[in-house]
Structures are given as C-alpha cells and as structure tokens.
Amino acid sequence: MKTVSKLLLALTFIAAGFYLQNCGTTTKVMGSWTNPETSGNSYSKVMVVGLTSNIVARRNVEDQLVAALQKEGINAMASINVFTPNFMQKQPSKEEILNQIRKDGYDGVLTVALLDERTESRYVPGSTMYAPVSRYGYYGSFGGYYSTMYATHYDPGYYTTDKTYVVETNLYDASSETLVWSAQTETYDPSNPETGARSLSLAIADKMDRDGVLK
C-alpha cells in the first residue's frame, strides 16, 4: 500500500509540471476509491500538498484546493505556507515533515500529482461565406461586373491542439500514514493554470464530500 512517506519525500525532487493551458476547461472524475478499513473516518483539518517542484504551479494548485475545501467547511492549509521553498531546499526527512504536520494538528494530508499529459492535434475546417450585392449596371466594364458579383469571404482551416491532464489526488491519515481515499481526474483544455486548477479543485472537493471523507 502506498504511504504518505513516499509521496511527501517526493515533494523535494519531483518535477512534474502543473501548468495547465489551452481553451475551455472541464474536469471529470474518472474513478475514486475509499479504503474500506477507514470508511468510518472523516477529516476536518487537512494539509494540501502539491507534488511538483514548480513553485508557481504548486502555489496555484494548493491555493485552489484549499479554497474549494474551505467552501465544504474543511479547515485546510496549503503546504507551501508551512513547508516553504527555502525549507524544502534543505531536503528535510519525511519524519521532519510528518512531525510538523502532526504538531500543527492536521488529521489528513491531501496530495496532488500530475500523472500524464496528453496532447492531440485536430483540424478545424475553414468556411466560405457569400454576400449578395446589387447586380444593376454591372455589364459595362470588368470593374462593374467584378464589384457587383457575389463577394466571397473565406476563412481558412487550421490545426488546434487539445490537451488533457490526468491528475491523481490522494488523502492520507496523518497519524497512521494510511491511504484513505484516492481519485483520478482528467482536465480538458484549461485556458490557463488558474482555471485548470480551479476546475480540478472543485471536482475533487465535491467528490470527497459525496464519498463521505470530509466532516
């Protein structure tokens, strides 16, 4: 079974990007799992940990998840406010990290990691629009004929790129380090990092609430 130790230790080294960029944004929960051995547990104070060495991306995804959890009545904190970039550069042991989490009274640790980024190109066909104009008196010259015939406006086709980000979110018991809940999501075509993280966070908080792991 996965433990929070491995994922928290990976926070020091992992370089997976959380930059989510493109057009319209949708997040879909592809599946979730709740540990039957901890099904009676619920969590009210949660540390949110974005597993990426990209500081801007980490701040973005953690802040968005904290905001979404707080809307569900959960006391949540972004780990970057406790484990600052300068602190993580010292490569603290997992014991140091866990001791601080427990000392501050957190009963859950929510980790977020980018598993995959898929890029697909597709062709958007062009279109032709005809605009009728007056035909009176156009036979006298080429110019008259040319200017009075159907005007044609053509929009050429183009290629566009669609991106899908597969993210895994895990909730661990801060005391036992046991994996309590896990979900995988797909976020499609976020227009920028903020909208992508917001879409992901709202979907995760809603699913956690419906799965009964939040107090």
UniProtKB/TrEMBL annotation:
Name of the molecule in the record: DUF4136 domain-containing protein
Alphabetized UniProt keyword annotations: Signal
Organism: Fulvivirga sedimenti
Signal peptide: 1-22
